[in-house]
Amino acid sequence: MQNILEFHEVDYAYHSMDGEVPALENINFTVGEEEFLVIVGPSGCGKSTLLDLIFGLLQPEHGSVIGDPDAVGYMLQKDHLFGWRTIEKNILLGLEIQHRLTPDTRAYATELLKKYGLYEFRKKRPSELSGGMRQRAALIRTLVTRPQLLLLDEPFSALDYQTRLNVADDIGSIIRSEKKSAILVTHDLSEAISMGDRILILSARPGTVIRTIDLAFNPALSSIERRETDAFKQYFSELWKEMNQLVP
């Protein structure tokens, strides 16, 4: 499996008039093709900073990030759909900004809308859709630019619990169906286990990788089906103990 992203001994600190605040220290990991990596850790450990380094919004102070920021799509905590644009026009927004709106890319957008059940809602406004459908639209908006790697920064945190389970299952299935690599940042340990291929655990600030856990599930299982297995319970217990040690 070829790596599409590599972190080698990466350090990053924030600087202000009050001094330096180390955020990340000696970060080493890789992400392979079609791999779903989940990152967990205590609040303030640098998870979002790590995503900004991948996206090219920040540059490491030491070490190297090997990857192509132009091949990365970023899905944030909120869907950020524009209320005055239809779902179709929201999905085409990234292509418009990149000056890549062509008959071929329009056709691909239509294909994704049909494939993932939003075609009949394409002329609706975001306010007319459920939270889950809006998140699906936000993902399609990201996919339509054909990124290699998707960054998911707690994209389900604003949803109620039942909707969150269903949307996570939905989004995870879409990402695997499209054969994309993904990095999910989450505080939800059950979500991490149900969606990922591998979990990377960061320490308290400055964040450093203290352990990775490889998840071995039947690839045919959905994220909801994973939750019903004995393996899920074992992984949860293992991850819970590891995270508990990070609480002061």
Poorly predicted segments: none
> Structural class given helices, strands, pairing?
alpha/beta
Main sheet specs? 6 strands, mixed
N to C succession of SSEs: EEEHEEHHHHEHEHEEHH
What is the strand content?
A: 25-35%
User: How many distinct helices?
Assistant: 9
Number of E-type strands: 9
The span between the termini is 38 Å
Helix content: 25-40%
Average pLDDT works out at 91
Main-sheet strand order equals 5-6-7-3-8-9
Could you tell me the radius of gyration in angstroms?
A: 18 Å
- Please state the overall shape, judged from the principal axes of the Cα atoms: globular
Can you walk me through this structure?
The chain is of the alpha/beta class and 248 residues long. Helices cover 35% and strands 25% of the residues. The chain has 9 helices and 9 strands. It is globular and about 50 Å long. The N and C termini lie far apart (38 Å).
